[in-house]
Amino acid sequence: MSTGKHYQMFDILGPIMVGPSSSHTAGACRLANMARRIYGAPLHKVICELHGSFSHTYRGHGSDRAVAGGLLGLAPDDERLVDALRLIADKGIDLTFTPKDLGNVHPNTMRFRFIAPDEPEFTVTGSSIGGGNIRITDIDGTATDFTGEYPTLILRYPDSPGMVYAASGICHDNNLNIAHMHVNRLDQTATMIIELDEPFTPRVTDAFQKLPQLDFFKAIAR
Predict the structure, then answer these.
(1) For 51-61, what is each residue's pLDDT tens digit?
(2) Are 162 and 101 in the same domain?
(3) Are residues 137 and 125 in contact, defined by beta-carbon separation less than 8 angstroms?
(4) How many domains is the chain built from?
(5) What pTM does this model have?
């Protein structure tokens, strides 16, 4: 009798990775890598706050090495992950881990605090949701919800009429289909997340960067 639910091979076997845990190792590596790409600046000091099960098992399950590797841009199956703590220290990056209750969030959640001289602190929060998959749930205090499985555009700007229309127009003019779009507001600031079905080009990113009043923009390829 069919249950109506279909599984792909990846759902059963999980990701190709350096173990031992898809959530605590592969997911942690991908979270750190995505946080690094969102931050987009050279790394000086990173505080990784560990919520829930991460806070109890991050050493035994290799989450600390996975985070270090992800911050260096390593993939979950990169054999250098076993030495990632040494590698990140060799680059002069100050990485520390601290248990932290982040409230009513997924049990496998981390918050990355990026600290640099003479710059405001920048934070990225995300969850490892199983099978090496992730969700980014907060950028610098604004709620978000995206996976990194699509080419993604992140815009932050003073909330004003016309920005959704302008962003949609750029996608239309460049024959890009929007898979998902979310806009979240905090006080007078809006954060827009656009996930695309197709890869973006430099022409697209240039057009977005020319939008008025934009104070943060990041384009993340799949």
Answers:
(1) 988 888 888 77
(2) no
(3) yes
(4) 2
(5) 0.84
